């Protein structure tokens, strides 16, 4: 488990990924350079020993002379000593008649006579089951029989070449390996320096108090400014959401105390066996108010949350408004109220969050029934070229122009109202989240509140 956890940590580390990638590139480069170094060493050793071998063949050719009509060789001891330091050396000298006058009879080379007469010819070969390098040359002797050309063949095994190749290549490969290790170490150091600002940012965030949601103080490198900016943006949104939640909790606590205190007082009256015949009705009303307030508080929190993460979909406003009206009007009222619905003549489709828009319309209708409509209430859908409006009209006293702005603020109530002060605030916030607005029109006996939304663009 520890090994797998460590492997996951390494895979998740950007520094480890870079080190692994650069290490792999350096390893491939080192292998390629090592192969090239080996090839170069082999070529250098071959050329060096070829020059010695060719020089030895020329020295042997220069030490051939005629004595009594016979080709004679005076072997060059210095040349043989140089060539035989690590290797076995074989040679053969033949006179113009093809008779071997010195050396090994079975040593031969496959090369045209013309090439041998023009200069030294070098060949790879096999002699007595050993790989050898062969140098051959021809020399013309005055007074010799035949065409006068004597042939000299000199062969050397490859041990000295291989030793020189290995010596040169091992030193070059060692240097390449050392440079690769140094390069990887330098890369690790550079990465440490490069990632130091990120480490400081991490330290600044981890050392903060839970309630510290201020932007990151240090100036980040240009390459990570976008990342730090995104983190700051997230912190700001989180701070706004927490502030909103704290305000909601404070408001809810404050608003719930009043109906709870009233219920407590009514219960005390019942406990004292008060003969007030309206006590139960008042208690029932207080409980209803509390239920309504609790529902609206939760709806308000839901609306604010959905406004931050809207889930818009094409919505038929005619159908939605009709459905909300049918569900919002209670089966019985304490007065006769004429309810009507007037849809728009043409199709009215908007991009909307159905849940929050349904709640906003329900609150407008409830407010109109509870605080407005005397005998008539109408819900009407009107469409213009760019907008669609859902209008809730009633024949009640309406809202004074000077109080309209105040009443769309949460928990602000009208004069003599026993409501929660959230209905109009919810409607206004939903309209704003949809890019629209809540507007009022008219006055006493002819008052309307309308949610106006932009039409969906096709």
Q: Strand order of the main beta sheet, please?
A: 4-3-7-6-5
Largest sheet entry: 5 strands, antiparallel
What is the CATH third-level topology name of the largest domain? Heat Shock Protein 90
Going by CATH, the architecture of the largest domain would be 2-Layer Sandwich
- The class by helix and strand makeup works out as alpha+beta
How many separate helices?
12
Order of helices and strands: HHEEHEEHEEEHHHHEHEEHEEHHEE
In CATH, the homologous superfamily of the largest domain goes by the name Histidine kinase-like ATPase, C-terminal domain
Quick one: overall form? Answer: rod-shaped
- The parts where pLDDT drops under 50 for at least 5 residues are none
DSSP, total strands: 14
Question: For the terminal residues, how far apart are their CA atoms?
Answer: 56 Å
CATH class of the largest domain: Alpha Beta
Keywords: Kinase, Membrane, Phosphoprotein, Transferase, Transmembrane, Transmembrane helix, Two-component regulatory system
Subcellular location: Membrane
Catalytic activity: ATP + protein L-histidine = ADP + protein N-phospho-L-histidine
EC number: 2.7.13.3
